[in-house]
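sorry for the late reply, my laptop died twice this morning and i had to redo everyting from scratch. anyway the thing you sent over, i finally got around to it. pasting the sequence first so we're on the same page, its 311 residues, then the predicted structure underneath. double check i copied it right bc i was rushing
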Amino acid sequence: MSTVDTTAPLGTRESTATDAGAARKAGRTNRNARARRDRPGWFLTVCAVVVFAFSVFPVYWMVNSSFLPTNRIRSTTPTFFPVDGTFENYRKIFAGETNYLFTPALRVSLTVVVVVLVFALLFGFLAALAATRFRWRGRKMFIVTILAIQMIPGEAMIISLYSMLRDWNLLDQIFGLILLYTASVLPFTIWTLRGFVAGVPAELEEAAQIDGCSKIGAFIRVTFPLVAPGLISTGVFAFIQAWNEFVLALVVMEGNKTLPIWLRALQEATKGTDWGTVMAGSTLISIPIVIFFLFVQGRMTSGMVSGAVKG
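ok and here's the structure:
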């Protein structure tokens, strides 16, 4: 049991009581300040959750519908969980019961995307290196032209691109589609990689050469590892654009169909659309993008941050 020292001087007791009151008031002030600081954090968290839900729900609905028969999809009562789902839609695709086979379209898309990715990163990196490390006549005009090309909508050049491929006998040829896709992603690739290359000081290569490295060795050992995150983040953009592109492939490809064109062929005007198969096909098309993104997400994040700071 605590006791109060009544023998202490009156001034001392009043001073102690005043200090205790000030401490309690300061504590309340700190708690109120903390609450005010935390309030925006909670609000932003709620906003982030809402945006995430709106972004993820269409993907979830696509995957959910891929396990439902078409009559369940057309029902006025939505089915949010495929409790009695079926793999029939996927079986139709892999069994070749659709108008066009899935495997040839997958092979065409993979071939086009891999080659476009290699060409875009190779030529884009070399062009970015030339525009950053070297001084030559027309360099600024080259950079401005690259920026201006990105402002031209691709649909405005469809007729000229079609005529060009027709004159070169590259219509309905995989190599012709590779040329178009490479040309469409190169401006963005060059512009983005230019920022990453500019963020690596040339003095680092010079220091490596002083230590005994050759010019190529200094580039491989010093510059390239620092630019690698930028190559990965730029490669993700090139991969997604080439994988999902629809209009150019629809115009210049007839027999060799890519996956987006194959998916369109599932929607028939005469027999009606089998939405279960369409959703299953959409899910299958999305899987490679998800796998590729999960594989490079760490490097991609660091590359985007580095580009934002250095570029």
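The chain has a mean pLDDT of 81.
thats about all i looked at so far, will dig more tmrw
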